[in-house]
Specification:
Oligomer: single chain
Mean pLDDT: 79
Number of strands: 11
Order of helices and strands: EEEEEEHEEEEEHHH
Number of helices: 4
Largest sheet: 3 strands, mixed
Strand content: 5-15%
Strand order of the largest sheet: 4-3-6
Amino acid sequence: SCPASTSALGFGSVARSDCGCREKFIDMNRLDGFECVECIEGMYCPALSQVVDLESGTSVLGPDFTPKIEAGYYATTGSAMEIFKCRSFDTCPGGPPGTCGGGLIGIPCAECPEGSTWTGSVCEDCAGWRQALWVLAVLAIFGFLTLAYYLATSKVTAKATVLFATTASFGMLVMAMQNLGLVGMMTVEWPASLQGLFSICQFLLLDIDSYGF
């Protein structure tokens, strides 16, 4: 019979080697013996799961008995039982610990390697024209703010209530879109139809990850 807290795959199993932890539990013992621990959120643990199989991403019993990190979560290779929740399934596709999508690195798959930038789906090398667009974007923002200041404070338009109302309305619109952008950055699985709106609003947050030129 199998030791306490373990079970065998079928009634025909007769050897101790056929025993293992039950489903949703994982064996933390790397030597001979069993130490079944309940799997936490973000882990997929079939029957007979072992921590060595989780770290390697393979099992001698086949892929159906290989524990893994679920999509949307991340774990480092050195601490496979420490699970981090990611912002999306694209950045953390799941699988063996240390797996990131799109060439991302860090914890939890939060940055691109040096010399590359996030385009929304993959890390790409920073080309010269991307840096030029950054400079043009900054200059355009300062130019717009300068123009808006002079239009709002000139002697001709100082008493132009229509212009003032338009400027105030535009400011409130920008603030509302920034709030929507913050909502979209929450770790919530929003409907796909809202992702485009949130992406546009996040552009106004001056979030570097949103400017994937």
